């Protein structure tokens, strides 16, 4: 697909959570209809699109019907099973491509890829069993973190190991799944870069944001990040290198640790990213529209930042405190039930530049 | 209704064109569902909302069903028949209220209201027949414009009169509908102010924009308008006076002529307005969200301008020239058929302040 997807075409989105919802709203501005595929029967994105298919990720017949009903497929989360993608891709193009998806689905593949292109990650070792873990702890030391290779997000599937004798218990708590042991990175800050690469190879990055987590969940992103300009440029260049190496088409989130020895890549997400929500009120073209532009073959838009923004996630009961944010730009996800740790919405607090 | 409409509630929107579509997208960000009522069976706004009722403005049963399915009603155009509103208002609140609607639905009532609160309009006279028109032409002179009192928009229902002997023909061409004769205003520029008034009486205006028309249809809006700051303040204050006098709740567009004797009010529109589309990419809170905030009882948001914007309407075949605007913020309306004079979309060309 080298031409621009015609207006009026339908984009299939795998996953109907808040990211799919905001992607669909951006797509509507460009006159693309969206069709959501989600296992839930009333996903948040379903409220803003003409079509929803409710189906399991293993329901190949439903996935094929969905694929035949759309002109192009993208996804809001990287853990779509390979079999689902195989079924879809036999019928309709999927963007971003499989390479980025497979790399990001497995923490070992991801780190191998990143170090393979000369970037720095935390020290890591593949862990299949207790002897491998004990040996790795001897090299990487403690404290360190044992993570499942696959399906981890928002701090799930992770165990911190403070002493070597916790190794056995950690493996048990992760159900002996294939894992990776990661050395602890002593970082000053976490930043992220939201990068976009178009079908023509053009690459654009939004300004790096500074992220604050609690309980493994992103709480706030601040732009500008309070780091030297040279470091911001490093972060952007490094993101460009990742996008190019993967021949990527779409938006990607790259999480980075700022350490006294430079930038360390934490992880990459081949999709729009929570830490890029500030772009909705800080840029003419936000990350959601940039993603739609990239996958449809449109040129990327102007993502330069025209305001300072503090993005504040509304997690679970935070939603009940919405009155303190009524002056800010509010983005709610249409989720009826408040649950602990559930992302209910976010607000962007916008201030003039400078 | 003095409290904030609860999240998850449904807002009914009368009219499913591009204004209804953009209102619905703003409402979704605040977790309000929208239900569109429109005589067309696939209106543009229908693509981005969960519910659409297709019904005529005279179908009281359908209007009543619609009213019972929603928590609050607003409208995207001011020519909703009074009978339709009567049926709806017996069941559910309508915002903005009837006063502003009835005033803006009739050009004589509108001018009587405006002059009644001390504002300047074009000289005008009520015209019911040829003798009245001939007498009025003697006072107001030529060139002047004969307009139907009701249902005019985008230059429709208007006849320019250059010589008194054209009076009879002008009345015929307007099918002898009740009309108003308006004197020609010799203006340097046309500007407009998009004002918002909350349920609590708080009033906020966006920066005045400068409008360029062709064939009676808005083509471009520029912010900032190239007029003295004092005149901008006059325009904003005058808009506030209109909003207050009508006890208005919602967003209103006020079109003004800049003349060498000051500002002359051309017309008011009790709804979001084409000349306010620039706010989507020039302000943290745009006119659509401001309207939703006002009618739901939320406080108004920050509508200060953080960028210079040129809004360019895409009329009819303009859409086929979209490639020249691919670098700009694009807003398409999801209309399948290009027709002469039909508003297909707009783009916002954003530049840094200064």
UniProtKB/TrEMBL annotation, chains A, B:
User: Is Zinc set as a keyword in this record?
Assistant: no
Tell me the leader sequence span. none
Q: Which domain of life is it from?
A: Bacteria
Pfam family of this protein, just one?
Answer: PurK_C
EC numbers: 6.3.4.18
Could you tell me what reaction this enzyme catalyses?
Answer: 5-amino-1-(5-phospho-beta-D-ribosyl)imidazole + hydrogencarbonate + ATP = 5-carboxyamino-1-(5-phospho-D-ribosyl)imidazole + ADP + phosphate + 2 H(+)
Q: Which GO terms describe its biological process?
A: 'de novo' IMP biosynthetic process
Recall the GO molecular function terms of this protein's record.
Answer: 5-(carboxyamino)imidazole ribonucleotide synthase activity; ATP binding; metal ion binding; phosphoribosylaminoimidazole carboxylase activity
Presence of the UniProt keyword Ligase in the record: yes
Q: Which residues form the ATP-grasp domain?
A: 111-296
Q: Per UniProt, which keywords does this protein have?
A: ATP-binding, Ligase, Nucleotide-binding, Purine biosynthesis
Which GO cellular component terms, listed alphabetically, does the Swiss-Prot or TrEMBL entry include? cytosol
Q: Which InterPro entries match?
A: ATP-grasp, ATP-grasp_carboxylate-amine, ATP_grasp_subdomain_1, PreATP-grasp_dom_sf, PurK, PurK_C, PurT/PurK_preATP-grasp, Rudment_hybrid_motif
What residues does ATP bind to?
107, 147, 152-158, 182-185, 190, 213, 266-267
Q: Which SUPFAM superfamilies does this UniProt record tie to the protein?
A: Glutathione synthetase ATP-binding domain-like, PreATP-grasp domain, Rudiment single hybrid motif
What metabolic or biological pathway is this protein involved in? Purine metabolism; IMP biosynthesis via de novo pathway; 5-amino-1-(5-phospho-D-ribosyl)imidazole-4-carboxylate from 5-amino-1-(5-phospho-D-ribosyl)imidazole (N5-CAIR route): step 1/2
Described by its record, this protein's role is as follows:
Catalyzes the ATP-dependent conversion of 5-aminoimidazole ribonucleotide (AIR) and HCO(3)(-) to N5-carboxyaminoimidazole ribonucleotide (N5-CAIR). Catalyzes the ATP-dependent conversion of 5-aminoimidazole ribonucleotide (AIR) and HCO(3)- to N5-carboxyaminoimidazole ribonucleotide (N5-CAIR).
Provide the family line: Belongs to the PurK/PurT family.
Q: How does it assemble?
A: Homodimer.
HAMAP family linked to this entry: PurK
- Name used for this protein in its record: N5-carboxyaminoimidazole ribonucleotide synthase
């Amino acid at each position: 697909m080298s031409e621009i997807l015609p207006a009026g075409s339908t984009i299939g989105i795998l996953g109907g959570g808040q990211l799919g919802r905001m992607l669909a709203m951006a797509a509507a501005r460009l006159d693309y209809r969206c069709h959501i595929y989600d296992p839930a029967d009333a996903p948040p994105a379903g409220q803003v699109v003409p079509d929803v298919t409710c189906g399991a990720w293993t329901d190949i017949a439903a996935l094929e019907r969905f694929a035949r009903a759309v002109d192009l497929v993208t996804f809001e989360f990287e853990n779509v099973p390979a079999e689902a993608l195989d079924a879809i891709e036999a019928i309709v193009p999927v963007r971003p491509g499989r390479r980025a998806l497979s790399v990001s689905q497995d923490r070992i593949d991801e780190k191998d890829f990143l170090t393979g292109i000369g970037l720095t990650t935390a020290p890591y070792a593949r862990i299949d069993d207790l002897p491998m873990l004990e040996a790795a702890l001897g090299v990487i030391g403690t404290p360190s973190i044992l993570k499942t290779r696959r399906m981890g997000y928002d701090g799930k599937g992770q165990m911190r190991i403070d002493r070597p004798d916790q190794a056995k218990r950690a493996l048990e708590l992760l159900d002996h799944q294939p894992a990776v042991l990661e050395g602890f990175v002593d970082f000053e800050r976490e930043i992220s870069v939201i990068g976009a690469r178009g079908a023509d190879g053009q690459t654009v990055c939004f300004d790096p944001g500074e992220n604050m987590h609690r309980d493994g969940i992103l709480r706030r992103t601040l732009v500008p990040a309070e780091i030297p300009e040279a470091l911001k440029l490093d972060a952007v260049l490094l993101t460009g290198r990742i996008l190019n190496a993967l021949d990527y088409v779409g938006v990607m989130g790259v999480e980075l640790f700022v350490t006294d020895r430079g930038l360390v890549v934490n992880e990459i997400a081949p999709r729009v990213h929570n830490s890029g929500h500030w772009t909705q009120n800080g840029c003419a073209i936000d990350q959601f529209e940039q993603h739609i532009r990239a996958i449809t073959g449109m040129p990327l838009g102007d993502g330069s930042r025209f305001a300072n923004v503090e993005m504040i996630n509304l997690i679970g009961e935070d939603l009940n405190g919405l009155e303190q944010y009524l002056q800010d730009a509010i983005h709610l996800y249409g989720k009826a039930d408040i649950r602990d740790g559930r992302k209910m919405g976010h607000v962007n607090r916008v201030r003039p530049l400078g």
